From TrEMBL:
4-amino-2-methyl-5-(diphosphooxymethyl)pyrimidine binds at Q45, I46, R47, E48, K49, N77, S116, K145. NCBIfam families: HMP-P_kinase (TIGR00097), thiE (TIGR00693). This is Thiamine-phosphate synthase. 2-[(2R,5Z)-2-carboxy-4-methylthiazol-5(2H)-ylidene]ethyl phosphate binds at T142, S143, T144, G172, I192, S193. Binds 1 Mg(2+) ion per subunit. Belongs to the thiamine-phosphate synthase family. Belongs to the ThiD family. The gene is thiE.
């Protein structure tokens, strides 16, 4: 797998390093690592000091497949040969391993290169040598690595300030001392014994992950912002409410401009009160003249007057990263947009969008054709993209295919294959996906990566199997929050 620089930085958050010496009778490294990845580890390194090369390589191959399943980067410690032989995502090496070698040239530009550093000079040299990140430690006393060099949290802070590549702290880090790293500006923590020596590696992982999240908070200056322009769903599963939850969980500051109030629940939409065009304009003016959004998600737009005002304001403010979810019909079958408004939507809004995210019925309306096969999905996406000069994500989940989505952007097609999650509670999935894409665009990810990350978030929210209401219920947007604060 290829990871962008931004993804590598985020993947530092909870970096797990294997240690087979803690395995108990009957346990395998692969099964423990699966538990660790399931509970949210964001990076995995295989570290084998005593295994002979063929067993090391075999184990590495298994862990590589596991990491691919969880879309988590996987690197091999020390052995460039094994990393290349199994086509791992990269390699992690220490100061002793890099002397006189051009590792970047050896592994190629696409592989992740991690280098250990314990001084500012080593860190700066590692960055110059093409490292994608540095591992800095030991920040606390550790019995896992004999003769580890110790450094203070103050030295760690100096190293973080001296380089622009991500920094992960390592050495003796566990749940009770992790907070001592606050203020150091690290991008994450790397741990061995705090996870692998635990009686419950999965729980240790989720506990460390929530502590790491508190440690590695984006500074206010770096907080990106996103705006949802959509209808209110009083039952909280779709519309503005789903969008705000999604954007917040995807790490951006969320704002809203409401186009309609709906009285609805999981079974039906009972009443709709449309916002006046003038009031929509005021909301947009208040937002754009104060906290300019880094991305905009557009959902329910009940009539042509609202679409015209919105298009005019978006042009006026030169809004960036516009993701348009062309909401026409609710999951329950209720009409959410006047038929006459579809023409205005096509003429005024589609050309402003960076991405439009129709489901199959909506794609049929936008492409003026029936869609019954994957080839017809591709043809419809190409038609919409070329006609309206925007990228198109046609979502599966309907009869034509399952959880597979097609992205058409700049003439290129990319299929995203999703796991089918047997959860009948799908209220708000479209709102959630488009908001997650907008949030990730706001954070600077590419369109393709934003779609991939948004699909991963949606899968997590669906997999939490929340079951509320008598109809098609909402998802658990906060599936990755423990609700524990200290
Ligand atoms: C993320 C990370 N940081 C540092 C190290 C230590 O690497 P090294 O100094 O080569 O020591 P060994 O792990 O090989 O004993 C690491 N492995 N990972
Ligand atoms: C590999 C390594 N490099 C510096 S300290 C260390 C050991 C980290 O292990 P633990 O998390 O168990 O202290
Ligand atoms: Mg090493």
């Amino acid at each position: 797998m290829n990871f962008s620089k931004e993804e590598i930085r985020h993947s530092m958050l909870l970096y797990a390093i294997t240690d087979r010496t803690w395995l108990k009778e009957g346990e395998t490294l692969t099964s423990i690592c699966e538990d660790v990845l399931k509970h949210g580890a964001t990076f995995l390194q295989i570290r084998e000091k005593d295994l002979e090369p063929s067993a090391f390589q075999k184990e590495a191959l298994e862990l590589k497949a596991l990491c691919a399943k969880y879309q988590v980067p996987f690197v091999v410690n020390d052995s460039v040969e094994i990393a290349l032989a199994i086509d791992a995502d990269g390699v992690h090496v220490g100061q002793g391993d890099i002397q006189g070698k051009n590792l970047r040239a050896l592994i190629g530009k696409d592989k992740i290169l991690g280098i250990s550093a314990a001084t500012v000079a080593e860190a700066v040299a590692a960055q110059a040598a093409g490292a994608d990140y540095i591992g800095v430690g030991a920040v606390f006393g550790t019995s896992t690595k004999k003769n580890a060099r110790n450094l203070s949290v103050e030295k760690l802070r100096e190293i973080c300030a001296a380089v622009t590549i991500p920094v992960v702290a390592i050495g003796g880090i566990h749940a009770l001392n992790l907070r001592k790293l606050s203020g150091s500006q690290v991008d994450g923590v790397a741990v061995i014994s705090a996870i692998f020596s635990s009686d419950n590696p999965g729980k240790a992982t989720s506990d460390l992950l929530s502590l790491a999240r508190q440690l590695v908070q984006p500074t206010p200056r770096l907080m990106r912002t996103a705006l949802s322009i959509a209808g209110s769903d009083c039952s909280g599963g779709a519309g503005i409410q789903a969008d705000l939850k999604t954007m917040t969980m995807n790490g951006v500051y969320a704002m809203s401009a409401i186009t309609a109030l709906t009285a609805q629940n999981t079974t039906k939409v009972e009443k709709i009160v449309e916002t006046s065009p003038d009031f929509l304009k005021s909301q947009l003016d208040m937002i754009f003249t104060d906290i300019f959004p880094d991305a905009v998600k557009i959902g329910m737009l009940p009539n042509a007057r609202l679409i015209e005002v919105l298009a005019e304001r978006l042009r006026f403010y030169q809004a960036k990263h516009i993701v348009l979810d062309p909401v026409m019909v609710a999951t329950s079958g209720s009409i959410l947009m006047e038929t006459s408004a579809v023409l205005t939507l096509k003429k005024e809004l589609l050309p402003l969008a960076e991405l439009v995210t129709p489901n199959i019925p909506e794609a049929e309306i936008l492409s003026e054709r029936k869609i019954t096969t994957p080839e017809e999905i591709e043809a419809a996406a190409e038609f919409i993209g070329k006609t309206y000069h925007c990228a198109v994500l046609i979502k599966g989940g309907h009869s034509v295919n399952t959880a597979n989505d097609l992205l058409w952007a700049d003439g290129q097609m990319e299929w995203f294959y999703g796991r089918c999650i047997p959860n009948p509670n799908t209220h708000g999935t479209g709102c959630t996906l488009s908001s997650a894409i907008a949030a990730n665009l706001a954070k600077g990810y590419s369109l393709s990566t934003s779609v991939q990350r948004a699909k991963k978030y949606l899968s997590g929210a669906l997999s939490a199997m929340l079951d509320l209401g008598a109809g098609s219920g909402p998802m658990n947007h906060a599936f990755c929050l423990t609700g524990e604060f200290s």
